[in-house]
Amino acid sequence: MSQTYYAILTAIGEAKLATAAASGIPLQFKQMAVGDGGGNLPMPSRSQTALIGEWYRAPLNNLTVDVNNPNQVIAELIVPENQGGRWIREMGLYDREGSLVAVANTPPSYKPQLAEGSGRTQVLRLVLVIANTATVELKLDTTTVMATRQYVDDAITVAINRLDFKQSARAASTANLVLSGTQTVDGVTLAVGDRVLVKNQSNAAQNGLYVVALGTWPRASDADANPEVTPGLLVAVEEGNLQGDTLWKLITDAPIVLGATTLVFADITSGYAPLKSPDFSGDPRTPTPSRFDNDKSIANTEFVKAMGLEFSAVKDVTVTGTTLAPEDAGKVIRVNLPSAAGSPTGFLVLPPLSVLPGAAALLLKNVSTSSLVVVSPAGTDILPRPLTLPPLCSALLVARPGTAEWLVSGGSSETVDALASGIAGQWSFRNKLINGNFDYWQRGTSFNTSGYCADRWRIETISNVIVSRGIAAPPYGKYALWLSPKAAVNELSLAQVIEKNIASTLAGKKANLSFQANSGVPQSITAYIQKAPIADQAFIENGWITIASKAYDLGPASQNFSLSADIPNDGTAVGLRVAFAFNNAANGISINLWGCQLEEGHLATPFEFRGPTVELSLCQRYYEKSYDPEVSPGTAGAQGCHISAAATKTTAAAATVYYKVPKRISPTLTYYALNSGEPGKSTVNGTDMNGPSGSAYTKGLNGFELYWSSGVLTTGVNIHQHWTADAEI
Fold first, then answer.
1. Residue 114: helix, strand or coil by DSSP?
2. Strand, coil or helix: what is 445?
3. Over the stretch 211-222, which tens digit does the pLDDT of each residue have?
4. Cis preceding linkage at 255, omega within 30
């Protein structure tokens, strides 16, 4: 198809451009005209010296070279709203001497004038292809130029692009990049269209601002030309593991040729405190808050001094008899002493008061779970009374100015001594849970069905989980509870019901459940404090009612958790229990639990480590066996204190057993043959026999008499038997 609409140079224009090329003096375009073509669409002719039907001529409004086509010159004319009433079919371009140098036709359009009731300002552009645009002078009379919207938009864009402060980049490079495709930079997963500050290229001339694309990255539109990339260019980086929230400056000196000049960027936030986690240097100062402010004001040294916060470090003391040095004043002294000479007591000597400033403070913390620490003053210094720190207790000592006397201002020596003597009221046996550290497993050490597992702890629901005894990390005790899922779909809940006479002490009070836990991977476990209107029952017909619960996020590090609840005193909490539950935990990754404590009050205190004999005795009120504590019931052999009896006649034999601890209720007795461990059998003269089978002749809270009656007994045979007594809730 032949071209209908086009622009050409006239013969005059061709000659003048040739002269301009030869002389080096550019041709100046000055005016542009429109005409109606005499009523018909004209075809441009080289021989034209004027338009056929010119009706409007004016100075050029704009004259530019097309940025995308460097051989095209674009001339622009604006016809104001008060001109018109004619058709536009032709356009002409005139030089400064008034010669027609280019002519074009255009699709016919009617230009109304305002008097006709419809006026508009019309923009006309004539595009002319010229072999060498340097032969044309792009110069206008600015007093006659009218700015179009496009011109203004373009001018604003150019002006913004040439500003030194650029639009922020989402991320910045930390190493040489392949500048194509989506990728991750400084921990940021980039998407198409994201701006990136590239500053670490092996070829530093490639550095600059880029836009992420599926293919090759283009330079950002505000930094893709020489006038837009100048010394002092600034760009902020929004995200990144290393360079998020930083500001970068181009420190390369002019002249800069983009793509050829090495571009070097410097982090101007380096050496300045960032808003996120500032790290000050020198001697920064802030206003001093009021002494008892409790807000987010910055605490300066004057404020800290006024508050008396003098602790400067933590010092570990592990050798009994250590004498603290004067420079230890103002520190937290973490004491962990071994037993001295077979005694559970070590001692520590305070620094001399004569070399300490007045009001110097020492915080002594006994982190041992077993050793007591006797604290002694140096020389003739005075403590108001002997001071002993029991396990997991602390005391704050302050040097009294002008005297040789220490003040015990945090806690009191009386309280500390009372704790050490075990007469401190709520502090003794404050943990309402028994076997809260999972040290005793009389029934066995691994379970995958519901029922009691570790002493006093009952598995309520279980699916694809193994509950077992695990090894605890010091200083948390000997054992821990390990909950190990064995399939992706799993479930577990376990609980300890608190006996009525213990639960009643919490009625109408605040209670706190604390525990320690960890897991190999991030996951969660939910803790509960629950009530029931019936006491001493594991199963409640309408279910346990939750007073308080919370899901806790676990991880590899051991953590302390706590949950508080108000225990009602209205008869609805006669029964009380604590419980833990999870479902669909990480397959093959155990959740480890220890240090469970339920106590009066809204704050968690350090776990109460009761002596092993005491804790086992508490467990044996609910369950006792003839086997050794570490031997599971049903184990073959004489491991423990089994029943031994000798038949004196052929019709009967009896043995009396007394429990170590009276039982909660008359227990359920189970008997095991000594040789095989098989329940319900006896070992008679070394042979397991169904009869004589064991049966309790009498039983009570303190013991039982085991009575055999069988026709197979013969005088003088020896009968051996193990047993368990279960009085659990």
1. helix
2. coil
3. 999 999 999 999
4. yes
